[in-house]
Amino acid sequence: MTAPTVKLCSGYDMPLVGFGLWKVNNDTCADQVYEAIKAGYRLFDGACDYGNEVEAGQGVARAIKDGLVKREELFIVSKLWNSFHDGDRVEPICRKQLADWGVDYFDLYIVHFPISLKYVDPSVRYPPSWENEAGKLELGKAPIHETWTAMESLVDLKLARSIGVSNFSSQLLMDLLRYARVRPSTLQIEHHPYLTQTRLVDFAQREGLAVTAYSSFGPLSFMELNLKEAQDTPPLFEHDVIKGVAQKYGRTPAQVLLRWATQRKVAVIPKSNNPTRLAQNLKVTDFELEGSELEAISALDKGLRFNDPIAYGLPIPIF
């Protein structure tokens, strides 16, 4: 099966369920993308700092060559890293990422974080990181309006069909929407029952932005990073509320968490290298949770954020 879609303000359709490429190992990435396409996935969410865009592109190329899918049937997403926010750096890095993927355009290209870091040439350090070539974090000077103007030019050049933002607050969205010539199509945020961000989601959707959730399973995504907050937080898969709903519908806890999001028109980008779970994660729009169940899951909110630069020792309090 393939996922239903949501209409973006750019006019294009985006699958409501996709495959996230964060933390997908280089040695398995091409095969995982290929198998995900075979299973029915059409949206792939990548970023240059994930370090696996070449391999993801290899998986796409093999699937197209084998006749599993056509390029126009895929929805490929990538992101602009913080060290490329200067206006004259946006197009060159986008073109590099397109070359890495082996495609002519991105269906969606996103500003990864609302923070500018000093430029580091890809020949010096790539994939990029929060630190420069000397191992230090150094802020850049590019304001968001400069970066966004360059992002808009990618649409003009047909390098990106849609553009969006990630990890933006309501205040930043309000500011961006005042001057954007090309409106952002999407907002991607950390979103799970421990961090519902209801006001932000509601505002973005009212303004016509499709919201995409990352880390839909809460602390699970961050356990392998040895993040203390994740290790000290009860897993959502084992929470009585989630388990109870899963048992009622004969679904897995993961499917319930993904349905809690998709039923509220929030797109999701889970990943798995297990064929069974891969299929299960895609099959999360064919059953309906009751309103009381949606509310009970939302009531688990703790305002608990895991993907916070501060938690990793970076002095960037953007949240």
Please supply descriptive tags for the structure shown above.
single chain; 319 residues; alpha/beta; TIM Barrel; two-stranded antiparallel ribbon; 10 strands; 36% helix; 13% strand; globular
Descriptive report:
By secondary structure, the protein is of the alpha/beta class. It contains 11 helices and 10 strands. Helix content is 36%, strand content 13%. Helix 3 (87-101) crosses helix 4 and helix 8 packs across helix 9 (253-262). It has one domain: TIM Barrel (Alpha-Beta Barrel), CATH 3.20.20. The protein has an 8-stranded parallel sheet with strand order 3-4-5-6-7-8-9-10. A two-stranded antiparallel sheet has the order 1-2. Helix 4 (144-156) links the parallel strand 6 and strand 7 (160-166). This is D-xylose reductase [NAD(P)H]. Keywords: Carbohydrate metabolism, NAD, Oxidoreductase, Xylose metabolism. The record marks 79 as: Lowers pKa of active site Tyr.
Tell me the layout of helices and strands.
Layout: E1 5-7, E2 13-15, E3 19-20, H1 26-39, E4 43-45, H2 53-65, E5 75-80, H3 87-101, E6 106-111, H4 144-156, E7 160-166, H5 170-179, E8 186-190, H6 198-206, E9 210-214, H7 228-231, H8 240-249, H9 253-262, E10 266-268, H10 275-282, H11 291-298
Parallel strand pairs: 3-4, 4-5, 5-6, 6-7, 7-8, 8-9, 9-10
Antiparallel strand pairs: 1-2
